[in-house]
UniProtKB/TrEMBL annotation:
One of its GO terms (cellular component) is nucleolus. Keywords: Nucleus. This is Nucleolar protein 16. InterPro entries: Ribosome_biogenesis_Nop16 (IPR019002). GO terms for biological process: ribosomal large subunit biogenesis. It is found in: Nucleus, Nucleolus. Belongs to the NOP16 family. It comes from the Eukaryota. Pfam families: Nop16.
Length: 179
């Protein structure tokens, strides 16, 4: 197999380029990336990371914040001589807002496609619980097996339980009128 073009070419080193100056200026411009908006708003760029976190009441090093008891390490505890001094928390609202946000229930983000919902409703409406009939239906474009159709119906039941109950309840009067 032939070699890739350009691989054997010698790369020239630029002696006139000051790499230390470039690296230093890039480091100076880079600010810490903070994901939490509460911390970002309370952050003081003129202070160090440790000072900022201490003012907010947050731990810089989790290993130092919650030490492992000596009992677990296999040593005997001689006394509580290692109690860290309490630090002054100047921005307690940051921790309070984070706790409030964490206590909110998580929003359910996963939904089913409209096509799948229509497919499942059509199958239930025309065939009820007969999955073998559903597999032979002409609307079964993807040639799902009875087990695959049953699984899709169960997914629909789990995602929209109230909607499923209302749909099945609306089908029962129609069947009673036919008989």
């Amino acid at each position: 197999m032939p070699k890739a073009k350009g691989k054997s070419r010698r790369h020239k080193y630029s002696y006139n380029l000051n790499r230390k100056r470039l690296f230093r200026s890039a480091r100076r411009r880079a600010a810490p990336r903070i994901a939490c908006s509460h911390i970002r708003h309370a952050w003081d760029p003129h202070k160090s990371v440790a000072q900022n976190l201490a003012e907010m009441g947050l731990a810089e090093d989790p290993n130092k914040a919650v030490p492992i008891p000596r009992k677990l390490l296999g040593m005997e505890v001689e006394g509580d001589a290692q109690q860290p001094g309490k630090k002054l928390v100047r921005k307690p609202y940051v921790v309070n807002e984070m706790e409030l946000e964490a206590s909110l229930p998580e929003k359910k983000g996963n939904t089913l496609s409209r096509d799948l919902i229509d497919y499942v409703r059509y199958m239930i409406q025309n065939h009820g619980e007969n999955y073998k009939e559903m597999a032979r239906d002409e609307k079964n474009y993807y040639q799902d097996t009875p087990k695959q159709i049953k699984r899709k119906i169960n997914v629909y039941k789990n995602f929209y339980p109230e909607e499923y109950k209302n749909f099945v309840a609306s089908l029962k009067p129609e069947k009673m009128e036919v008989q």
